[in-house]
Design goal:
With 241 residues, this protein is an alpha/beta fold. The longest helix is centred in the N-terminal third of the chain and has 13 residues. It is elongated and about 70 Å long.
Length: 241
Amino acid sequence: MRVFNFDEKPTNARAMPGAPGKCLASMGNYLFDPQVLRNALIEDAADQNSRHDFGRDLIPGLIQRVPVYAYNFMTNHIRGDSEENLSYWRDVGTLEAYYEANMDLRDARPRLNLYNQLWPLRTAYFDQPPAKFVFAEDSRRGHALHSIVSEGSIISGGSVRNSVLGRSVFVHSYSQVDDSVIMDHCHIGRHAKVRRAIVDKNVHIAEGDEIGYDLSRDRKRFFVTESGIVVIPKVARPVSN
């Protein structure tokens, strides 16, 4: 797996020697010997002809001087996970891809499994209480189906389906959240309805407001992707009208 050539975003990618029609694409993850990287950055900074780009300048230059090796992610093995999850990868550089990656998490058999104890995610942990679901009346029942609900969240007589909720999200009574990504510290007001949306942190959806049901109206207030995902930034405070 020694790398002898590196082309940055070629129009027509060259095939690997001995593998007609195939090449490896960089996933943008690199492991370096610290001193090698330090020296390469210093040299590149002093090169007036360099564009100071990792893929266009730094990597091709290193290939000529030091051994560079590729890791074939298609052979990646995750302990405790199924064979179909061995090479899960998404480039979340677009809103559509980010949305789909979040939807992957809530599946019954997720492609990216957060519950595999043999392959834990090393991330920040917050001292917050467990999620809570309250009220069990016929028209006011706090529940979440086919969803991920993070710590500190309260589903207070509202309905959450096919969604991912961040920390300390408050879903008020009679409200409805479907197929959405709701980030930390958001409030979904009473009788509000949110569908196919990405809602950034600290957003308060007003009582009775509807997001994702009238895209023409949504486009006047927020950004809407080509597939109809409504994106609400953290500075927004939607109000019903």
